[in-house]
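User: Predict the complex.
Assistant: Input components as received:
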Amino acid sequence: MNITQHLQRNALHNPDCESTIFGDRVRNWGETRERVARLAGALRSLGIASGESVAILSLNSDRYLEYLFAVPWADAVVNPVNIRWSPGEIAYSLLDSHTSMLFVDDAFAPMLPALRAEVPGLRTVVHCGDGPTPEGMLDYERLIAEHPPVDDARRSGEALAGIFYTGGTTGHPKGVMLSHANLVVSAMAAAAAGEFLEADGRTLHAAPMFHLADLFTVLIRNILGGTHVIVPFFDPATVAQAIEKHQVTDTLLVPTMIQMLIDAPGVDDADLRSLRRLIYGASPISDALLSRAAVALPGVRFTQAYGMTELAPMATFLRPEEHADPVLRRSAGRAGPNVEVRIVDTDDNEVASGVVGEVVVRGGNVMLGYWNRPAETADALRGGWMHTGDGGYMDERGYVFLVDRIKDMIVSGAENVYSAEVENALATHPAVAQCAVIGVPDPELGERVHAVVVLFPGAAATHEELRAHCKTLIAGYKAPRTSEFVEAMPLSGAGKILKRELRAKYWPAAGRGIG
Amino acid sequence: MNITQHLQRNALHNPDCESTIFGDRVRNWGETRERVARLAGALRSLGIASGESVAILSLNSDRYLEYLFAVPWADAVVNPVNIRWSPGEIAYSLLDSHTSMLFVDDAFAPMLPALRAEVPGLRTVVHCGDGPTPEGMLDYERLIAEHPPVDDARRSGEALAGIFYTGGTTGHPKGVMLSHANLVVSAMAAAAAGEFLEADGRTLHAAPMFHLADLFTVLIRNILGGTHVIVPFFDPATVAQAIEKHQVTDTLLVPTMIQMLIDAPGVDDADLRSLRRLIYGASPISDALLSRAAVALPGVRFTQAYGMTELAPMATFLRPEEHADPVLRRSAGRAGPNVEVRIVDTDDNEVASGVVGEVVVRGGNVMLGYWNRPAETADALRGGWMHTGDGGYMDERGYVFLVDRIKDMIVSGAENVYSAEVENALATHPAVAQCAVIGVPDPELGERVHAVVVLFPGAAATHEELRAHCKTLIAGYKAPRTSEFVEAMPLSGAGKILKRELRAKYWPAAGRGIG
């Protein structure tokens, strides 16, 4: 089992089938195989060693996909960099992973001087953008043209496939080590579950390709055959156009992207009827948004996937038909094939159904560990289970209901308040476009329930109105005691709201907000 | 990844869904889980050690399925015995695998004295039949009633799951060692391919459950959820009744069974419309039989799976729609997800497309090796590829066309003759019900093409007529030079024609016919 195998299979079985569509550039599987084999040849002749990390810092493109397969083909390890990070964070991840080779596109080429200054070991930079190749960088197409194809190294299943730095919501980046088997098992399970992508369909990659959620759909699509349609980044108009023009059948978006897509002016005019499936993840979807999305995208089947990079990435999923149930659609669904999920207390004992604890996961999808962090690896994987840091409970039929990140739970007075529950209540207010609920210091309560809210353009609401609205839906002690109104939320590369940043101004640097 | 996991998942997610139907006995997943956990408890209290082999010699039943999961649940290793074997062959396999515990049903209980005499280490025999428990055996239901459930051992993916003795067509039985990962990866790939069983359907187990082909469908069904309908053995009337009564959606049969089913008197009266998918394997299907089956079973989608026990068991498969192509339907299809297939010459070099060589396979499905046979393991797995012993060629799109077992190829004069090609020609003669073509000694040619033929009841044909018919379809040197007419073919447990036995009377004991 290795991630290149399905590319090989598609190239043998359907060489003339379109593999990638990026703008006006269309390739077929035979071409993609040849280009990947040549790029791998270039990596080898550039001295990349077995098991060495090769990074990429780029918007989405067909070349990003080629990179993802050329690197393991050359017996090396992918290291897709979070494009939302600062040069300092990126430099940290490159240094930590001993990366000497980086692919960079036009959008990020200007960051190179700063990176080179901080990462002296960065020997080779390949320009994979469409503009002219900057001085001091190798030209991507020239590497492909000038190197003969090499054989696929076909790393074994347990071998390291990639180092995926995470930490956007939790502080210092950590390199999650995933094996080929981790990635293939997870994608195979999704393909076997039959609820993710259409057989022989066309998958749109609009979510950032550095993130494992999108890589997951790359691998599922490769297993199922079919075509990748790629846009540089998420933009509602671009996404709508790509769906219509290329008859996209499925895509993965995070809820904030779904919201932007259906709210965007002019999207109503696009013909999106080819779209049959939409996978969403990274955060729960509010009932309000789901209802609006079902109207705006009729005929689309929604599947929720819950997981994290450390799980390559899927733990549970919620099937389309389960969204019809008002209780179940508040859940993250149930364990996928080959995944075991439990809820445990702080002593790692399994709790009864209905009781909140930490979600832990076991299975062939669980990461090898954190790169160079044996203590954190041992802690995260204690007892053989990946400790997700997510708080939740399981019902007696295995549905997992997430209540919060363990560290996002608010202890207000003597009561536990789950921010997700408050956010769900807030989101049903017609003026609320986005919201996040955090605990902030309070002299009487210890922590106070505090709402951060983005209103719809032109809409208005006061704190008192929002609090009153919430109290009609949830217990009074859970309703926000204070609110602040902001223009936009700080988002992670995966589109998650960065509560750490929201909390920062309320908590001292050493406080829980940073942990 | 372990084979018990999907049972656990079904019991948690759908405890009330029917798990097994055997005659009038119906259980649900919650019950099956409880019974399996109790039976595993019984095995442990009976002293079965971790990794120890526990055998079963039984017709199909719901208890057979429980055995298959209780044994790994107890941290032991399954050893399903070929029910077509003689007591001597069975004793050999029990001795070879150091088996001390055997499950046996009413059909095979009479064989016990002979087995006990040859296998002194056989300490414990569990009677899993429905009749009264014979003296000296433990009662299956009593073991379940008297032992509390234990936790699933959840052996790790690479751990041994079973020893599957094979050799029905090649002589001395060899124990094929398959890991949990081998079995799960293979079943997951089939589920991901989407062409094998219906989601949430009902699978009929009529092919013998000791054989990996049927176990394959047990595991796929467990991954997809749904119900197992089990009959003790293949019988056309029983199968037709079970399909109608229990609304079976899919099943696996070998071509000889398909033929018996559609030829059986009275089957026309049964309502088989619930049947949507039929997997066949073990041998290619003739065009003639496929045409007749398509008429007798309208609406059924046929998928061919090609593989062997050593491949857990699938290498390639032919999709339903590919059967419409007259060329492709003579192939065994193409590699499944996660499987690599090549054709190599006698020096293990890959040959060009269209050139006949040996089919070799690599992937997560390839066996750990042969039990206690390091030399044969090393030979079979040389270079990291499983050498199937099957001769064939691959076209430029990856379709594998099997021509013969390497050792079944006939060298007649200076020409290579592939028996399968001759058999395909013979099978189109309206009088021919079954046929097998072998090489027999010939003073002039070295080997002579010889046909063994079963005619339809009431039909007649002479050797000269058959030879003339073949010469209209294939080159004259390939047409049988001699024919013999028999009442029935010797069949292996998997329903394969035993050419070894057909050849035995023509070749001396040390000759190729035994190899």
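The first strand of chain B starts at residue 18 and ends at 22.
Let me know if you want any component modeled separately.
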